[in-house]
Design goal:
Blueprint lengths: L1 E3 L12 E4 L3 E4 L4 E2 L6 H12 L12 E6 L5 H13 L6 E7 L5 H8 L6 H10 L7 E7 L2 E7 L2 H6 L5 E6 L13 H9 L1 E9 L4 H10 L2 E5 L8 E5 L3
Helix pairs in contact: 1-2, 3-4, 6-7
Length: about 240
Amino acid sequence: MTHSNTTPETNKTSEPLTWHDGDMPYSTAFGDHFYCQTDGRLECGHVFHAGNGLPDRWQSAEPFTIGELGFGTGLNACETWRRWKEHHQPGGHLHFISFELYPMQANEIDRALSRWPEIDAERKALVAQWPQAPSGIVTVALDAQTTLSVVCGDAFTNLSASPHSFDAWFLDGFAPSKNSDMWSAELMQVVFDHTVPGGSFATYAAAGFVRRNLIAAGYALERRPGFAGKREMLCGIRSA
């Protein structure tokens, strides 16, 4: 693992947490749970994987880069790594890059993810390499075919400066009603601009202003049924 302090001026201390139902983290800063109360791991598959055409798009040996807004507990990263190991082709490499304002501590990640035995191996590997004071860009070599980078600080500032282009996006900030900055027209435009032609996004969110911002950014947008009875989710493609 390498750990570089590239943007210390934008780093924040960990946000205050409380715990509901034993091990479900709740952000007191944003007034929202970190993941779906029904089953966040299954929601990851329904929304972010299926919404981005994964794992089918992993059938080539080309490098694949996923961007995420909101690392949170690391649940999406761990579940994606688990499925990547099952489905990727020899020679393929996954770079999962997440943008997070308030990185959690290792013990908080461990507690939050311990409810899912399906990702025990991934949770333990992540926690073992997580720095004591995450800041800047935290880069973890999860295995020979998988790299995780967590960019700590303001998402708009850091993504605007990012040299990376992304094949797929997981838009997983706190609910638009709780954290509208994570869904702003300006940030959605930067997300689009850092998406490769033919690249995609998916999100559990379906608020009208989020939908309008994604369309205005340039995505060809699709509405699909949401997870666990939620009426809608959004996904889309950058056609050019």
